[in-house]
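Q: How would the C-alpha coordinates look for this protein?
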Amino acid sequence: QVQLVESGGGLVQDGGSLRLSCAASGRTFNGYAMGWFRQAPGKEREFVAAIDWGGSRTYYAEPVKGRFTIFRDNAKNTVYLQMNSLKPEDTALYFCGAEIGVWGTVVASIRHGQGFGSWGRGTQVTVSS
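A: Here is the predicted structure in C-alpha coordinate form.
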Protein backbone atom coordinates (compact mmCIF):
# COMPACT_ATOMS: atom_id res chain seq x y z
CA GLN A 1 0.00 0.00 0.00
CA VAL A 2 1.40 3.36 -1.03
CA GLN A 3 1.16 6.39 1.26
CA LEU A 4 0.81 9.86 -0.23
CA VAL A 5 1.42 13.35 1.12
CA GLU A 6 0.45 16.46 -0.83
CA SER A 7 2.00 19.90 -0.51
CA GLY A 8 2.29 23.18 -2.38
CA GLY A 9 -1.20 24.56 -2.03
CA GLY A 10 -1.88 28.14 -1.09
CA LEU A 11 -3.63 31.37 -1.93
CA VAL A 12 -3.11 32.88 -5.36
CA GLN A 13 -4.81 35.56 -7.41
CA ASP A 14 -6.80 34.94 -10.55
CA GLY A 15 -4.33 34.17 -13.33
CA GLY A 16 -1.57 33.05 -11.01
CA SER A 17 0.32 29.78 -10.78
CA LEU A 18 1.02 27.07 -8.24
CA ARG A 19 2.87 23.79 -8.29
CA LEU A 20 1.55 20.95 -6.19
CA SER A 21 3.70 18.04 -5.09
CA CYS A 22 2.77 14.55 -3.97
CA ALA A 23 5.38 12.43 -2.24
CA ALA A 24 4.85 8.67 -2.15
CA SER A 25 6.18 6.08 0.25
CA GLY A 26 5.40 2.66 1.68
CA ARG A 27 5.27 0.70 -1.54
CA THR A 28 6.90 0.72 -4.93
CA PHE A 29 6.11 4.03 -6.62
CA ASN A 30 7.08 2.70 -10.00
CA GLY A 31 4.19 0.71 -11.39
CA TYR A 32 1.46 3.01 -10.11
CA ALA A 33 -0.48 5.43 -12.20
CA MET A 34 -0.78 8.73 -10.34
CA GLY A 35 -3.45 11.34 -10.47
CA TRP A 36 -4.84 14.52 -9.05
CA PHE A 37 -8.42 15.03 -7.98
CA ARG A 38 -10.09 17.99 -6.33
CA GLN A 39 -13.09 18.68 -4.18
CA ALA A 40 -14.75 22.01 -3.51
CA PRO A 41 -17.06 22.58 -0.53
CA GLY A 42 -20.45 21.01 -1.13
CA LYS A 43 -19.32 19.26 -4.28
CA GLU A 44 -18.21 15.76 -5.17
CA ARG A 45 -14.60 14.94 -5.82
CA GLU A 46 -13.70 15.41 -9.47
CA PHE A 47 -10.85 14.19 -11.61
CA VAL A 48 -8.15 16.65 -12.68
CA ALA A 49 -5.22 14.83 -14.29
CA ALA A 50 -3.46 11.46 -14.38
CA ILE A 51 -0.13 10.08 -15.53
CA ASP A 52 1.10 6.55 -16.14
CA TRP A 53 3.93 4.98 -14.18
CA GLY A 54 6.55 5.84 -16.80
CA GLY A 55 5.42 9.43 -17.22
CA SER A 56 4.86 9.03 -20.96
CA ARG A 57 1.08 9.12 -21.05
CA THR A 58 -1.25 11.66 -19.49
CA TYR A 59 -4.96 12.31 -19.29
CA TYR A 60 -6.63 15.58 -18.34
CA ALA A 61 -10.08 16.74 -17.44
CA GLU A 62 -11.42 19.14 -20.04
CA PRO A 63 -11.59 22.22 -17.76
CA VAL A 64 -7.85 22.12 -17.05
CA LYS A 65 -6.47 21.23 -20.48
CA GLY A 66 -3.89 23.75 -21.61
CA ARG A 67 -3.55 25.19 -18.11
CA PHE A 68 -2.42 22.30 -15.90
CA THR A 69 0.45 19.89 -16.46
CA ILE A 70 1.03 16.66 -14.57
CA PHE A 71 4.49 15.14 -14.43
CA ARG A 72 6.45 12.81 -12.19
CA ASP A 73 9.96 12.15 -10.99
CA ASN A 74 10.19 8.49 -10.07
CA ALA A 75 13.68 8.92 -8.62
CA LYS A 76 12.10 11.23 -6.03
CA ASN A 77 8.88 9.21 -5.73
CA THR A 78 7.01 12.41 -6.45
CA VAL A 79 4.28 13.51 -8.81
CA TYR A 80 3.60 17.17 -9.56
CA LEU A 81 0.77 19.28 -10.83
CA GLN A 82 1.81 22.56 -12.41
CA MET A 83 -1.19 24.87 -12.44
CA ASN A 84 -1.10 28.00 -14.58
CA SER A 85 -3.74 30.59 -15.40
CA LEU A 86 -5.63 29.68 -12.27
CA LYS A 87 -9.26 30.68 -11.99
CA PRO A 88 -11.53 31.08 -8.97
CA GLU A 89 -13.37 27.93 -10.04
CA ASP A 90 -10.14 25.99 -9.48
CA THR A 91 -10.49 26.63 -5.75
CA ALA A 92 -10.67 23.26 -4.02
CA LEU A 93 -8.90 20.75 -1.83
CA TYR A 94 -6.55 18.89 -4.16
CA PHE A 95 -5.88 15.21 -3.57
CA CYS A 96 -3.18 12.99 -4.94
CA GLY A 97 -4.15 9.43 -5.80
CA ALA A 98 -2.36 6.24 -6.82
CA GLU A 99 -3.75 3.32 -8.77
CA ILE A 100 -2.08 0.16 -9.93
CA GLY A 101 -3.03 -1.34 -13.25
CA VAL A 102 -2.73 -1.13 -17.00
CA TRP A 103 -3.00 2.46 -18.23
CA GLY A 104 -6.01 1.80 -20.42
CA THR A 105 -7.88 0.34 -17.47
CA VAL A 106 -6.96 3.33 -15.31
CA VAL A 107 -8.25 5.77 -17.92
CA ALA A 108 -11.43 3.77 -18.35
CA SER A 109 -12.01 3.86 -14.61
CA ILE A 110 -11.57 7.64 -14.58
CA ARG A 111 -14.02 8.06 -17.45
CA HIS A 112 -16.51 5.92 -15.57
CA GLY A 113 -16.20 8.11 -12.50
CA GLN A 114 -14.17 5.71 -10.39
CA GLY A 115 -11.57 6.84 -7.88
CA PHE A 116 -8.07 5.60 -7.23
CA GLY A 117 -7.06 3.01 -4.65
CA SER A 118 -4.87 5.21 -2.44
CA TRP A 119 -5.22 8.85 -1.43
CA GLY A 120 -3.39 11.60 0.35
CA ARG A 121 -5.12 13.99 2.72
CA GLY A 122 -5.13 16.93 0.35
CA THR A 123 -3.67 20.40 -0.02
CA GLN A 124 -5.85 23.50 -0.27
CA VAL A 125 -5.76 25.71 -3.34
CA THR A 126 -7.60 29.01 -3.16
CA VAL A 127 -7.82 31.37 -6.11
CA SER A 128 -9.11 34.86 -5.44
CA SER A 129 -10.73 37.08 -8.04
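Residues 33 and 53 are 5 Å apart (CA to CA).

The helical segments are 103-111.

Upvote if useful.
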